[in-house]
Amino acid sequence: MSLENPRTTKYEFLGPVGAFLISTGVPLTIYGLYYACSEQTGGCPPPGLFMSKLPAFLDTQAALMYLAWYLFCVIAWRVLPGAQVPGTTLRNGTVKTYKINAFSTLVLAIVIVVALIIYSGPDAFTFLYKRYVGFVTASVVMSIIQAVGVYALSHRKDALLALGGNTGNMMYDWFIGRELNPTLSIFGEEFDIKTFNELRPGLILWVLLNISFMCEQATRNGGFIGVTDSMWLVLLFQIGYVVDSLYNEPAILTTMDITTDGFGFMLSVGDLAWVPFTYSLQARYLTFHPITLGPFFTILILFVNAVGYYIFRTANSEKNDFRNGKDTRNLRYFVTKRGSKLITSGWWGRSRHPNYFGDIIMALAWSLPTGFNTPITYFYVVFFGVLLVHRQGRDDEACEKKYGKDWEKYKQIVRWKIIPYIY
Ligand SMILES: NC(=O)C1=CN([C@@H]2O[C@H](COP(=O)(O)OP(=O)(O)OC[C@H]3O[C@@H](n4cnc5c(N)ncnc54)[C@H](OP(=O)(O)O)[C@@H]3O)[C@@H](O)[C@H]2O)C=CC1
Ligand SMILES: CC(C)=CCC[C@@H](C)[C@H]1CC=C2C3=C(CC[C@@]21C)[C@@]1(C)CC[C@H](O)C(C)(C)[C@@H]1CC3
After folding, report:
1. For residue 331, what pLDDT is reported?
2. How far apart are the CA of 232 and the centre of ligand 2, in A?
3. Ligand 1: which atom is nearest the Cα of residue 257?
4. First CA to last CA across the chain, in angstroms?
5. What angle do CA 300, 306, 310 make, to 5 degrees?
6. Within its chain, how far is the Cα of 164 from the centroid?
7. Does residue 420 sit in helix, strand or coil?
8. For the segment 198-220, what is each residue's pLDDT rounded down to a tens digit?
9. How far is CA 286 from CA 52, 228, 263, in A?
10. SS3 for 327?
11. CA 185 from chain center: how many Å?
């Protein structure tokens, strides 16, 4: 075992057994959510739990369309212009550069879809709703293929492995991600598989799925005039979130997924299947269960989302500006033995993950438009809460390793983990 790629001695997610359970559980949950909440199976939930029939899992047309979608994203990455931005310094001392053009890819995709809808009517873009299960299968197959491919590639002599992904247990390493930054060369340009998947094919597909669900509602209700206020709210919030993520694309380069985690099945299925198909559940529900909120509830939900967005954005900007030497707020901080500074006032003085707090408030605002008819449309809030609590724990552990006593000192100053005065 080389010094650069030490053997991993600690398992996360309960080791190989957990890796197996999550790898099978994630696709099953995506199908399960469709089964438990869809028009085709009889409602949300269906009247008899085991009585309804699932549509075909395999749909060749959907698979071909999904492949075309993925290729569109790759071609857009290659041909659209974009700044070359350096990532963080890797532990072997090298720095990778990334092409920043995810936002232009989103704009291009939306322009094409809107042109299609204007030219041919909303009915022309309902195929994502109608062939939903086929698209799920295509994205899961794509995730498996990619995870197998990057696992095989990671056995090159020059591969830099993730510190957490080199246990030697095939199942676990395949799941958690063995290589830190699997890269291909596409027409002479370095293609970083992990950052590409994290921001483009899945997040933009989430937007397109939502637009397709709105088109289905419009088709049924006499055009876009018949689209309900609840559907508009969900689209506004979720498209706004994706726009924000892609517009701030360089911010992803310092997240733990990019700096620390390898790319394996957990991230490939999370990025390509889980994000678009479970995060869009609310809009899919509203397609077959339209809800009119009226001005009072619309304004109330807009307010909840605005509060969440304000916290999420100002917290992330405070940290990014501070770390980039552009702080205008005179935030208090202390310098750690490692040399980096930890903020102790503003949002980062109120809790150790104020951005997660904003994110979870937004998650709630995205489910509220579906009313209180079924708990299933609140799945995202629950999952996201669990994800963020777990992520907070992982980050705390990583910071403890990085900063040692300095992290203890920071924890003494900032006692709350996510929600000030509560958690
Ligand atoms: N919608 C979704 O499904 C998901 C959304 N997200 C969102 O992604 C965003 C990024 O999240 P994530 O990467 O987990 O973590 P953060 O952006 O919260 O970054 C954590 C890192 O920030 C640095 N840091 C911590 N405390 C301080 C401080 N006081 N002062 C300065 N730096 C500090 C540390 O790294 P260092 O010191 O090494 O720089 C730490 O590892 C969040 O807004 C989150 O809500 C995340 C996951 C899923
Ligand atoms: C069910 C399963 C296997 C879960 C894996 C977790 C993934 C769903 C998440 C891990 C980190 C993520 C990030 C985003 C989406 C969810 C996943 C993939 C993210 C792209 C959402 C938008 C944000 O602005 C972000 C870019 C910061 C974020 C990055 C992490």
Report:
1. 85
2. 24
3. 13
4. 41
5. 155
6. 21
7. coil
8. 999 999 999 999 999 999 999 99
9. 20, 9, 34
10. coil
11. 25
At 298 the pLDDT is 98
Compute, in angstroms, the gap from residue 199 CA to the centroid of ligand 1. Answer: 16
Report which secondary-structure segment, H or E, holds 335.
Answer: strand 333-335
Q: Which residues of the chain have pLDDT under 50?
A: none
Contacts of 295 (CB under 8 A, 6+ apart): none
Helix/strand/coil for 192: strand
> Rounded to the nearest 5°, which phi and psi values hold at 44?
-145, 80
- Pocket lined around ligand 1, Cβ cut-off 6 Å: 255-256, 312, 316, 319, 340, 342-343, 348, 352-353, 355-356, 359, 391, 395, 398-399, 402
Task: Give ipTM to 2 decimals.
Answer: 0.91
Query: Residue 12 CB: number of other CB atoms within 10 A?
Result: 17
| Contact between 52 and 180 (Cβ < 8 Å) | no
Find all residues with CB under 8 Å of 186, minimum gap 6, and list them.
74, 78
130-181 tens-digit pLDDT: 999 999 999 999 999 999 999 999 999 999 999 999 999 999 999 999 999 9
> What is the distance between the alpha carbons of residues 413 and 364, in angstroms, rounded to a whole number?
29
Q: 310 is written with which tokens?
A: 């304000």
Residue 226: strand, helix, or coil: helix
Angle at 340 between CA 338 and CA 341, to 5 degrees: 130
Burial 346-368 (b: 16+ CB within 10 A, else e): bbbbbbbbbbbbbbbbbbbbbbb
Cis previous bond, 290, omega within 30: no
Could you give the CA distance from residue 103 to residue 110 in angstroms, rounded to a whole number?
Answer: 11
Distance, CA of 377 to chain centre:
18
Structure tokens at 102: 């995810």
**How is residue 269 written in tokens?**
């299925």
| Residues pairing with 183 in the sheet | 192
